[in-house]
């Protein structure tokens, strides 16, 4: 297995994995990267077993979206081996002893997580009511030296605070390596209702960007359905629905988000000798290298209560980073991308050379949900 898309749910700091009993697949697909993709009936997915969803009405389409045919075949590795039938969802198979069911809480608060090896370079808007966002960002293969570390790029929708035990976050993006030892991975956990038969929430992306060469990007959108209240995740410029987070599982995010963040995050645990590991963010280049060399977020839009999408330049936003010599972020503007930013960096400098292929994983796309309730 090379890599995959992850779904992570943490509820009240406890693991919310369901039973290890996996529904009988309608079809099984062997991916070229070694993954096994099971096509299961979407009504049998673990998310719908959440007690909070006892009276939940299954939503097949976003209420204000015209139904369109699913598109996008070819950008995930498993697509080369087949597709799942309509009415089913693709799930990457896990071994029964795999590490996708851990119960250490992962906190989506930069100030707290940075003290435990989490480093950031992010843009943030806050102090308003937000109902979704859309952004295009390129996919890279940053060097990740340790199996315990990771490097990711994502969007955060946040409400509440960890300190007051009412933090809710939704996070979506791509990741290299996995959240080892944190939370509950994948659609085997309750929380996210998977709809798409085309997009596997745990499967490897087939393309990545090359420094100074071809760029490979993804467009993700998270939006709140005005009728059901569910938070929907879609992909592509025209919003191909992937699935949704039911409104019933939220507290402070049940109506709107109070802040949105965009950017990169790495985890630097360090090795057994106490020496920091080398983990790159984005392309591994600092933001001043610009387009084609630095990682970027482009065409950023924010949804208002009436679901109108406004460009980032209409909002006051701040840029921040937690390890200046290793990872930074820089604002930019042009006609193609509007107000956007570059982010990333090479990570801590060490005299010992690091092989770029130390870990053979490529990038992951993943969706993450954290819910902390009193």
UniProtKB/TrEMBL annotation:
Signal peptide interval = 1-17
Sequence ranges assigned to domain Neprosin PEP catalytic in this UniProt record: 112-350
* Keywords from the named record: Signal
InterPro entries reported for this sequence: Glutamic_endopeptidase, Neprosin, Neprosin_propep
Q: What is this protein called?
A: Neprosin PEP catalytic domain-containing protein
